[in-house]
Amino acid sequence: MNLEEFVKSTLAEDIGRGDLYALVEEAVEAEAYVIAKCDGIMAGQTYVNTLAFIEELEIEWLKNDSESFVDGDILLRVRADSHRVLRTERTLLNMLLHASSIATLTKKYASIVEPYGVKLLDTRKTRPQLRVFEKYATRCGGAVNHRLGLDDSLMIKDTHLKTIKNLKNYIQKARRQIPFTTKIEVEAETFDIAKEAFESGADVVMCDNMTPEQIREIVAYRDANYAHITLEASGNISLKTIESYAKTGVDAISSGALTHQANWIDISMKVQ
């Protein structure tokens, strides 16, 4: 679904058959603000702007996507009649909370690898129906999107390799079938598999679940023989380990933790 459909569906999920509050009193002009109750990175502005368009809310942004905020900062102000402000409160906050929580964690990872010139990549480990939303949030935190779906590139994982008899022949055949601009990535769990991927003509080789020491060996081999091939590290990546992987000389590091390990930060709405 597109962005507007997503926001309408999210709002409908919360409102149900209608806001019972609005049955009791007529609407009055209202102003509210969203305040941070912890430090973080802003994300969700694009989605809240769409909500504002649908529900005719007047939004004044004090923080924008990808900007940092601290405990006590006012992130935005909302003006509309009281019925609109209050019926959209939870939807607005949920979108900001979810996106900003992912962006906040992502920024911690990105800040570690940035000095080494390594790209931080997200993964397809996203919640069902929330892939575009969550990958948008990782971008706000400083990550680069890996493929959005299976059709973005041809990734040959360990499970695929079990079904392929000759990797070089398979890649040659794939080049004749897939779009000219599409990259081919091979997941390697050992030096021998990585070497085979280099020799078979892969564009990207992912060093999966390897130690930094094992990856350094592959980086040295790549640099000496296949400098044009991109190296990616993945598996066992955490805030504690990511720097050791960034130091190996790989071009990129991917981590599913950016989305599935993000804990919600604390922000809330207050009506003036």
Tell me what the structure shows.
The protein is α/β, with parallel strands linked by helices and 272 residues long. It has two domains: 3-110 and 263-271, Quinolinate phosphoribosyl transferase, N-terminal domain (Aldehyde Oxidoreductase, domain 3, Alpha-Beta Complex), CATH 3.90.1170.20; 113-261, Alpha-Beta Barrel (TIM Barrel). It is built from ten helices and twelve strands. The protein has helices spanning 3-15, 45-55, 82-113, 131-140, 158-161, 167-177, 191-200, 212-225, 242-246, 257-260, and strands at 29-36, 40-41, 58-61, 68-69, 74-81, 119-121, 154-156, 184-188, 204-208, 230-234, 252-254, 267-271. The strands form three sheets. A six-stranded parallel beta sheet has the order 6-11-10-9-8-7. Helix 9 (242-246) links the parallel strand 10 (230-234) and strand 11 (252-254). Helix 2 (45-55) packs antiparallel against helix 3 and helix 6 (167-177) crosses helix 7. It starts with a helix and ends with a strand.
